[in-house]
């Protein structure tokens, strides 16, 4: 199972929407995930296989933390284009 953390400024709205969209996307492609939404301050100390966020928060992560940047918290097509290849690669390598 891939542990995914979605990240936004407050960890309430946008990251929660992204969490639900990634869960649906992963289920559609039979990729086992556990997804949690969190705010950007808490994300830096969180342990996860993959962090998903927008480019505005990409620089908060340390070297070695895997980050997928999506262009949107809401647009299913953009999320799929941005995140699915990363999930597929991680799933293949598990």
TrEMBL record:
GO terms for biological process: phosphoenolpyruvate-dependent sugar phosphotransferase system. Signal peptide: none annotated. Residues 2-91 form the PTS EIIB type-2 domain. Keywords: Sugar transport, Transferase, Transport. GO terms for molecular function: protein-N(PI)-phosphohistidine-sugar phosphotransferase activity. The keyword Transferase applies. This is PTS sugar transporter subunit IIB. It comes from Globicatella sulfidifaciens.
């Amino acid at each position: 199972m891939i542990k995914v953390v979605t990240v936004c400024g407050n960890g309430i709205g946008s990251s929660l929407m992204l969490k639900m969209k990634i869960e649906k996307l992963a289920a559609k492609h039979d990729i086992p995930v556990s997804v949690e939404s969190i705010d950007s301050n808490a994300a830096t100390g969180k342990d996860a296989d993959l962090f998903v966020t927008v480019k505005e928060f990409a620089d908060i992560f340390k070297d070695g933390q895997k980050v997928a940047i999506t262009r949107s918290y809401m647009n299913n097509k953009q999320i799929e284009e941005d995140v699915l290849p990363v999930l597929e690669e991680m799933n293949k390598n598990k």
